[in-house]
Design a protein that fits this description.
The structure is a homotetramer.
Chain A lengths: L5 H8 L3 H6 L2 H8 L4 H28 L3 H28 L4 H6 L4 H16 L2 H24 L7 H8 L1 H22 L9 H22 L3
Helix pairs in contact in A: 1-11, 4-5, 4-7, 4-8, 7-8, 7-11, 8-9, 8-10, 8-11
Chain lengths: ~220, ~220, ~220, ~220
Amino acid sequence: MSYGQIFPQWRAAAGPHWPAYTQHRFVQALGNGSLPRAAFLHYLVQDYLFLIQFSRAWALAVTKADTVQEMRHCAATVHALIHDELPLHIGICAAAGLSEDTLFRAEERAENLAYTRYVLDAGHAGDFLDLLAALAPCVLGYGEIGAHLLAHGGDGPYADWIATYGGADYQALCHAVGGLIDSATMARLGDSPATTPRWPGLCKRFTTATRLEVGFWDMGLTP
Amino acid sequence: MSYGQIFPQWRAAAGPHWPAYTQHRFVQALGNGSLPRAAFLHYLVQDYLFLIQFSRAWALAVTKADTVQEMRHCAATVHALIHDELPLHIGICAAAGLSEDTLFRAEERAENLAYTRYVLDAGHAGDFLDLLAALAPCVLGYGEIGAHLLAHGGDGPYADWIATYGGADYQALCHAVGGLIDSATMARLGDSPATTPRWPGLCKRFTTATRLEVGFWDMGLTP
Amino acid sequence: MSYGQIFPQWRAAAGPHWPAYTQHRFVQALGNGSLPRAAFLHYLVQDYLFLIQFSRAWALAVTKADTVQEMRHCAATVHALIHDELPLHIGICAAAGLSEDTLFRAEERAENLAYTRYVLDAGHAGDFLDLLAALAPCVLGYGEIGAHLLAHGGDGPYADWIATYGGADYQALCHAVGGLIDSATMARLGDSPATTPRWPGLCKRFTTATRLEVGFWDMGLTP
Amino acid sequence: MSYGQIFPQWRAAAGPHWPAYTQHRFVQALGNGSLPRAAFLHYLVQDYLFLIQFSRAWALAVTKADTVQEMRHCAATVHALIHDELPLHIGICAAAGLSEDTLFRAEERAENLAYTRYVLDAGHAGDFLDLLAALAPCVLGYGEIGAHLLAHGGDGPYADWIATYGGADYQALCHAVGGLIDSATMARLGDSPATTPRWPGLCKRFTTATRLEVGFWDMGLTP
């Protein structure tokens, strides 16, 4: 998937960390249905806690946007995360016998803390672009994973998960986020962003966040 | 208007600053229709810029909330500000011949900078309650002003403005924000918040923000 | 005074706002000794409160630096402000009969709130450069004012103030801050920063902070 | 060690996580000299990167302090970290053949990212107390570890490290930080902080940071 002009360049700069994330053993096991149910539920609980922090990070992006257009985009994402995606998780977990209160009180694993707090700090330490570079691997990597798994079957016990991230709605969101990254980058770095002094730092942010996604899947395998 | 339990106490602590804000000459002129059109349009332009910063402040509140319930409330407010209230301003201004680009490029007056950046800093310097105490005078003061003007006529050239803030939708929003302030305060300070060490500081935040609202009306009278 | 390569360009971009600040009536009255004592003491009290917020802003810069070198510079400034400059103010005020507690409890004027909170927000909203552009007018403008007044006499009732800001120590600090701005700008925007998309925004930050400095002097004249 | 009134209560609330940190296998190996040199150097490199982030966190505390006294304390800590403790690390590493540039360019391990970014986020999400509760395990735990190892010998290949953290200067710093925690807590929560609604949240912050310290030692054992 391309999702715009900048994302493929950041992805290439991440080197082997990118496939280590998108083709992780957890992902393969989701796709072929071999993932133990306990691992999936454990992942869902941590992902619920993750989404809370991810919503905070997109809300931070609203405070760091330069234009009303950028604010609108980020605020719509916060709204979708809190009003659509969190309830989706709550529903799946409820069906598996986990109450929302159980979710909220679950202890965040260190791999979860590492990833989410790194993203938030990228925003506090830098500017809107730094934050987007740290947010991108999650949003767009899940799009790539979902599309890939769907194209290679997409059935089995985790068909719902695959249908969500491989489906048209989430793919449209990825294209929109890819477009936001492109326009935000050009507005700040001009037409040749890869030749500017800030480029290596943005690639490093993206790569670090990708490494932490790998850690998140590792954690998913150890309930 | 009471809008919950805490707001009336903060309002009382603000002493004469509160009526200086809610019964300001600008407000009276809005109510009796004597406000010059130039002053109203000038106010609308500055209020557009204000709303952008106010949206940022509510987004900051999302990042400082302790519970998903608090996050939901603040995220819904950000969404309403950016997707409903900003377009409302853009519409009124467009009808008066002011494009959105003109609005966005207008220079923020010092009184506007003072108020909005004080609110944002209250959030960065303190916690969720500090931010709510700085946000409260605007949200709830406009509710009080709108309800008062509507009860005393509400017609004339500024009837639309009065109908917006005095109307059921905005009044419901004020009651909801008053409830959020109450629950957030109790969750952090307990059942007798006025006896805790943080109370004077919260009253001071509310009072300072109220003083800066007075300055905003003063500014409105000097296009 | 040049204080590096970037500052003179930002100063030129500020147009008439710069002399409105550095040649303000308050400054002229400091220089020729005609400033009423009450105005000077009033200014000192507000400047004490200003320095507290300014220290917070330089501490924020520590959190937004990219290199240890940048951190060292900003941390040394925080230390100098809190351990040297604040006590200097406390000493002058004590000699005039104002205790530190009186200073700390004084009410910040709106012009003071506008300036300091704008600078802090520049840091939170943007990156290290945005913050430096908002900090620069105060640090370097005082250097220019001090040098100018010292070169044109520097005696009279406010000779101490002039000697402080026109003296070798403060001038050295200005050259160091000018150098920090230069190196930080080149590290992020390259060798031709004025041709990059971010340049107008940085000039606007500098200009807005300069406008707010004018407001601070205005406030100084109205105890 | 007690280091004030509040710290022992937070430490007790951390339960088994506290000894898991302060009596970790890495600590025991430091004390009896059995720690492989490679592990120690690996730890020093990560600790250098840690100290940069820790300096940022104490600088963030300056921006969140309520009084000049609190600001002074935190600014002095930033100064000591950047001007004394970082050079100490640079010196030890240089003696082992590692340049400062090598240190600065080393990749932060996930366990390091988790801990440091969690502390920074505690400050951004909450208030001064939240930040102190997240900072406390590192500062005071090292004091406890150093004092314990020194009292039980303190010689061997890591005698310098033990002498630093067990020595009078660092112990005095711990007592000062313990005092800051006490006074900051009383100023915000009153005389019975453990009975206030915020207490469980502060204990949780302290415990989470302690868990992440355990992870940091684990990381130290796997160069």
